[in-house]
Specification:
The chain is mainly β. 0% of the residues lie in helices and 46% in strands. Strands 2, 4, 5, 6, 9, 10 and 11 form a 7-stranded mixed sheet that branches. The protein is globular and about 40 Å long. The mean pLDDT is 94.
């Protein structure tokens, strides 16, 4: 079983920034595509951003384009989601996920998931 561990969530005022991190303890994740998803109360889980295993292609939901940036550091076995200009509507539990194909297609079913980290943006 592959376990993903997210960190970096918290409470921030609108317009602020947070950086989420996700790692896979004990595993080299350089061959995985990595994605971030989020789920707000009463809503379905939605795609936020993803990055291919090579790191040369990224995807973003329209709602976060220009504000969020995904990156990965294979040496540190970590993927990041830098979130700037946060809005109250970004409030959600954010989940990290790994895709064994490496292509990080936003529409794929990802294979492994973390437990999630709460992000709360106050107005």
């Amino acid at each position: 079983q592959v376990r993903l561990v997210e960190s970096g969530g918290g409470v921030v005022q609108a317009g602020g920034s947070l950086r989420l991190s996700c790692t896979i303890p004990g595993r080299t994740f350089s061959s995985y595509g990595m994605g971030w998803f989020r789920q707000a109360p009463g809503r379905a889980r939605e795609f936020v951003s993803s990055i291919t295993w090579t790191g040369d292609k990224t995807y973003y939901a329209d709602s976060v384009k220009g504000r969020f940036t995904i990156s990965k550091d294979n040496g540190k076995n970590t993927v990041y989601l830098q979130m700037n200009s946060l809005k109250p509507e970004d409030t959600a539990v954010y989940f990290c996920a790994a895709d064994k194909t490496g292509w990080a297609n936003p529409h794929y079913e990802y294979d492994y998931w973390g437990q999630g980290t709460q992000v709360t943006v106050s107005s």
